[in-house]
Design brief:
single chain, mainly alpha, two-stranded antiparallel sheet, 2 strands, transmembrane helix, ABC2_TM
């Protein structure tokens, strides 16, 4: 990797993203979502001695930032290179796929991390909990980062990224509803939603050891999507030979 090229690509992305209407809409929607979750999280009601809440504070916000912001921004800024026919130009300048991915991912993660920090401040997290929450969130952010990259590989334009992405978002938040309903079924422990919710509970209790154990499953999901992405890249390289 040429880090000078990566730096130039990152600078180029920061300059372009300010004028990217789709990205600005995503960011505006994310800020609205953080505010909505904070307001609705203050309300709840009881049914048969069970407390029903609308959202689960930061775990729900993290799910939205990961599934909506990270996946869409990563997918859009990658597929735009193909859509605007600038990918071949970058290849002529010997920009590798890895360099492009690192540059785009840096932009996406900086945006997502900034939103998550704002959300944790709004929810009155202490500094230590903010730092721990950011580290704990990385596997889920990386999972959707690879998933967004995977969508870009199969999409011809940003519209297709949206079409392919919405079913993933719907399924993720259906699982989020199951986790928040506290159903006692072992099936939900397979999905990252369960572990994110439990992990943040232990972070707020300052039980860092137990919280770190709940990172294992999100890490496995992130590795799975990376392997699928790598397999797609290998197949594309073989077709181009």
């Amino acid at each position: 990797m040429d880090f000078r090229r990566i730096r130039i690509l990152i600078q180029r992305e920061f300059e372009d993203i300010i004028w990217n209407g789709q990205i600005m809409i995503v960011l505006f929607s994310a800020l609205i979502m953080v505010s909505t979750v904070y307001i609705l999280n203050q309300f709840g009601f009881n049914v048969d001695q069970y407390e029903i809440v609308f959202f689960n504070a930061i775990p729900s916000v993290l799910g939205f930032i990961s599934a909506f912001v990270v996946m869409y921004i990563q997918g859009n800024i990658l597929v735009e290179e193909r859509e605007h026919r600038t990918l071949k130009v970058l290849q002529l300048y010997k920009v590798s796929r890895t360099e492009l991915l690192v540059a785009k991912s840096t932009i996406t993660l900086v945006i997502a991390t900034g939103l998550l920090i704002v959300a944790m401040i709004v929810f009155r997290y202490e500094v230590l909990h903010v730092v721990g929450g950011l580290l704990f969130s990385l596997p889920l952010l990386m999972m959707f980062l690879f998933l967004g990259t995977f969508l870009a590989e199969y999409s011809k334009n940003t519209i297709e990224v949206s079409l392919y992405g919405w079913p993933i978002i719907i399924v993720y938040f259906m699982l989020e509803g199951v986790v928040n309903s506290n159903l006692n079924t072992i099936l939900i422990t397979v999905f990252p939603n369960f572990h994110v919710a439990r992990g943040f509970d232990y972070i707020l209790r300052d039980d860092w050891t137990t919280a770190s154990l709940y990172m294992v499953v999100p890490i496995l999901w992130a590795v799975l999507f990376y392997l699928l992405l790598k397999k797609k890249w290998n197949a594309s390289d073989q077709q181009n030979m």
